[in-house]
Amino acid sequence: MGHFRFYNKQDILSLTRIRRFETKLGERLQVLADPNQLEASLQQSSASFVLLGIPEDIGVKANMGIGGTDSAWLAFLNAFANIQSNDFLEGSDVLLLGHFDFSDMERLIEQHAHDYEERLAAYRHAVNAIDDEVEQLVHIITQNKKIPIVIGGGHNNSYPCIKGAAKGFYKAGVLPIAQINAINLDAHADFRPMEGRHSGNGFSYAEADGYLEKYFVLCLHENYLPQNVWMDVVNNPFVDCITYEDIFIHEKRTFLQAIGHATNFTNDTLCGLELDLDCIEHALSSATSPAGVSLNHARQFLNFAAADSKVAYLHICEGAVQLSDGRTNPATGKMISYLVSDFVKAMSIA
Question: What distance lies between CA 206 and its chain's CA centroid?
Fold first, then answer.
């Protein structure tokens, strides 16, 4: 975990706009007592949730996507730290751990890769190194029976989240085998062939390696579902999906009925909740779409799925404040902040 930067109280207070007669979340969030004693400090903490960032776009570029997913973390943190601490969400149940910084890897690739093919291979090789570090940290958090809240980054980080949580909760004695389920609210299945690690095949690798048992994709877009992936989904009894079109165009189910179907499919063991921001209409991501669910739908998904699942972790990814092609949306950080706060509230009630 040589690329992880732990936060202290001053780091979060520097982002928090302190105001007389009010208390902001940044004033209430816990930080690690001693980064040199990670496990002991996690055990001592009363927080149920451990919040961390993976501001990288290496996995997206390895999937031939548009860079920029490294820009969401700090914007999210700025928004989240300045939520009001009140009876609805007080804040001290969340420990803010810090973030990964893989920018040195990216610089190395940009400087030394001579052509597109070489660069693509280097990005995919780098994702393996990212996997190892993220998995190790998620493993430590979950073996101490805390729930990670991971803000990405690309969807490549689903694989180390699944693997780390499965191994961590198994080591903690919560699971009989190192295997969990996942529900993914996403326009894409991210179940592409294992052609080298990237943001489009995290779930393929997790399933092939035995850490993902059941996988449910909610609001999959029919227009962006490769035929080979579709065949893998329909021929696998441990994978299920409901397309966006079946809910919102053909109206075969309501959105809430679809969430219920997903949680029922995955309720036999711990379940990771995945939310790819490209599922939200006009949200800025490497795969921004004019068609998608509303932000309110995404908030409802986290609210109901968190309350109705045995949650292993939350992973929100693929969002950007600024893409490498110049497009910007300063509201992305605040959007993620709403989603995280909805999740924590739902878990606290559940």
Answer: 15
